């Protein structure tokens, strides 16, 4: 069962970790490339701020973004800003989101996210937690997948395995870190491939952050995953 109050606290903690780490950078570092193709660290920080405001829209009954083009344009506009402006924007937008979440409401209601995706309001804090944690890694400033909270890694692995479940281009696959196991890919009575590896590497592969070279595959090659 989703515990949105727990996830709200986790978002706050993750945001503080990110702000503390980013606060040690300088203006030149913000303009350097992130681990995301075509994006500087400034793009990543601008995206995090605009994503927070977009989730405020969701909780206040407005479209998450006016359009995909407007979303991209806002990120491009805000990416070149100096460090102090980036920090202030991430901090202030995160506070606006926490304020929106503090308004009494029905957490079991269905809300609409980007591209027509719908979900329970109670799951949105976890989605934001994902944004903050994975993009902290994407900044390439010393926070790695291995540094993610164990609870987060397990839950995001489960979420991504479920996302690829039933996908016609992914063979029936069993994922395991040696302790826990998940199923993904096309439906079948038994898995075709078993993928084994450390938790951080499984998550990195599922999330498109690692190529899976640290994983082992039995029964066939490591499956190719569609983009998220």
From TrEMBL:
Residues 11-139 form the Mycothiol-dependent maleylpyruvate isomerase metal-binding domain. Residues 147-219 form the MDMPI C-terminal domain. Keywords: Isomerase. One of its GO terms (molecular function) is isomerase activity. InterPro entries: DinB/YfiT-like, Maleyloyr_isom, MDMPI_C-term_domain, MDMPI_metal-binding, SCP2_sterol-bd_dom_sf. It comes from the Bacteria. This is Maleylpyruvate isomerase family mycothiol-dependent enzyme. It comes from Streptomyces thinghirensis. The lineage of its organism: Bacteria, Bacillati, Actinomycetota, Actinomycetes, Kitasatosporales.
């Amino acid at each position: 069962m989703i515990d949105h109050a727990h996830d709200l606290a986790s978002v706050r903690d993750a945001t503080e970790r990110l702000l503390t780490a980013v606060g040690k950078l300088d203006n030149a570092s913000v303009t350097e490339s992130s681990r995301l193709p075509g994006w500087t660290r400034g793009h990543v920080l601008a995206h995090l701020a605009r994503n927070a405001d977009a989730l405020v829209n969701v909780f206040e009954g407005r479209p998450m973004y006016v359009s995909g083009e407007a979303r991209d344009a806002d990120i491009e506009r805000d990416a070149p800003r100096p460090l102090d402006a980036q920090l202030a924007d991430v901090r202030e937008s995160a506070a606006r989101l926490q304020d929106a979440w503090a308004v009494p409401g029905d957490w079991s209601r269905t809300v609409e996210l980007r591209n027509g995706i719908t979900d329970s309001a109670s799951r949105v804090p976890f989605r934001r937690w994902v944004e903050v944690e994975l993009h902290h890694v994407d900044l390439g400033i010393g926070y790695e997948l291995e540094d993610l909270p164990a609870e987060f890694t397990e839950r995001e692995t489960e979420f991504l395995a479920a996302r690829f479940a039933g996908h016609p281009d992914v063979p029936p696959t069993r994922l395991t870190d040696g302790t826990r196991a998940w199923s993904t890919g096309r439906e079948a009575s038994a898995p075709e491939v078993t993928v084994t590896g450390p938790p951080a590497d499984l998550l990195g592969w599922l999330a498109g952050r690692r190529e899976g070279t640290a994983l082992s595959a039995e029964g066939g090659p490591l499956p190719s995953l569609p983009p998220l």
